Target: Pyoverdine export ATP-binding/permease protein PvdT
Amino acid sequence: MTTVNTPLIALRGIRKSYGGGGHGAPATDVLRGVSLEIHAGEFVAIVGASGSGKSTLMNILGCLDRPSSGQYLFDGRDVSAFDADALAWLRREAFGFVFQGYHLVSSETARENVEIPALYAGTPEAERRARATSLLERLGMGARLDHKPSQLSGGQQQRVAIARALMNGGRIVLADEPTGALDSASGAEVMALLRELASQGHTVILITHDREIAVQAPRVIEVKDGMVTSDGGPAERVGSAPFVRTHGAHGQASAIADLREAMRAAWRVMWGNRFRTSLTLLGIVIGVASVIVMLAVGNGSQQKVMEDMETFGSRTMFVAANPVSSRERGAPLTLDDVRVIADTPNVEAVAPYIEDRVVVQRGSVDHNTEGGGTTLEFSKTLRWPVIEGAMFDEVDERQVAKVAVIGQTVRKRLFADGSNPVGQDILVDKVPFQVIGVLAAKGSSGGEDQDDRVVVPLSSAISRLYGHPNPTWIAVQIQDTDRASQTAGQIEARLAVQRRSRDVRIWNQAEAIRVQMATAQTMTVMLGLIAAVSLVVGGIGVMNVMLMTVRERTREIGIRMATGARQRDILRQFMAEAMLVTSVGGGIGLLLGLVTVLGLKLFGVPVLFSTAACALAFSFSVLTGLIFGFMPARNAARLDPVVALTGE
Ligand code: ADP
Ligand code: MG
Model:
């Protein structure tokens, strides 16, 4: 249905008014019914006094803005039906803008600025560069490819802007007062360029307040107070081909290439604002480092508690007879009680211990010590191994053997001559016993030297030393520490039935450890939370800076949109910036955390370093970037192109 006679651009009764939405300001009608037709290949000048509505008209022509009413047909199609992405596509493929104020992205070089429209069209990098370079060379800017806008004169900047307008083909060049900021020589050059473009078949729409400039165009449309007052009409049918839809002609660059490009741009911005970026980074660095350090310290203390408890048997409980009153001793424990305890679920081993003071003798040396009779379960339940010689065994128990193992203190007293105690005879309460083993050192606990003892088989203790079979205490080893309290309760209940009285005491060491572990865990969680909070604070810092960045770069966002960036391109760019900041911060934080943990370790602070914590902290920081970068990025993406372009 598109024919050669279909105007490329047809405006029918276009109106545009501002304000009047009940917010105090009265409505201003800037355009009051503009109708005009422009054919492909025409060179048109729109002229009018300042304030007559020319720029407003150009923004509508270039699909940067929508009219309040009226119809805009582009190549026969009503643009009011186009969504934001379709309009972006039209700006990218059909239009090239040249503004009075050049509107270059200040952080990028001349060539990079020219490349921007191709970036959003998905042109491959090599092709993009080559084309930008050749365009700039054609416009006499070959020697200034890598200059930033601030290093270029006004005329040079405008030439960069024209090259940019031509980057994607520039079928329609919209120039709003392109010479307005230039001296007359540069202005003349720019005009010559536009005339040349027109002669090459580009449709050129020049907007100016200067009649002398306007008359250089074959067709002049005059605008006054938002209305067309005169229109030279198409001078001649240039007969150039109408705008042909070329959607997808460039193909879409891969998502990875897009992301890489966004990262590169993000890096440039970050580098350009080094000081501010490093301040923002600081928050994330501290956050990540503290997550790592605090988790290492928390886990370290947890492990320390565990190790401490291991030495005294984390799975051991003690049962003893409870005196009924201060005078009455109550019924002693019996070996039947031991059997009842051994039959309780979750009980792994039981060691009865008959304890009383004895005198040990060797030669002329004698020593008052704690004597004890117990079973071979002793070593296991109390985690108290024999390190020299051997523990007595079942045979010794059955044969009521006169064998003994001694603690380190007894060894020191009786064997001060340094001889090997194993195999030697000693007297225990005047009864000869043979030393068959030496217990490992245990240190002191509860103010008592645990190593000051001699231990013999239970049967020998009963018949040769004490004459009674009543354990002073019973050590119980359980399987599952989580069920420690339950098991203690069961033992208590069973003994109450067996003894017909609730007269035993149970020290539930496992339970005490569990409580202590829980405390240590709580501390870890608390430390982790504190660290997480600092990371969140860091994230808020990122958000703050991102919001600032978006505000500062509103103009740039507008430029990018005018050159065809879609909302998602803008979103991607700002998200990339936020993520770059947080991942660089995360990386530095990771290193700092590791160094701190190592330092603490050197100073003897118990730390437990985990890669999982590091991974967690790092991904949390990147996530922070995602979350806190999203809002500012979305704000940027949702900006209206005209508002962004004209905004400060
Ligand atoms: P020109 O480019 O011809 O000098 P403009 O199109 O920039 O004129 O502006 C025409 C009129 O519209 C001016 O009076 C200006 O104050 C008004 N105008 C332009 N943009 C806005 C806006 N966003 N809000 C309110 N008034 C505006
Ligand atoms: Mg203007």
Observations:
- The chain has a mean pLDDT of 87.
- The CA atoms of residues 98 and 175 lie 4 Å apart.
- The first strand starts at residue 9 and ends at 18.
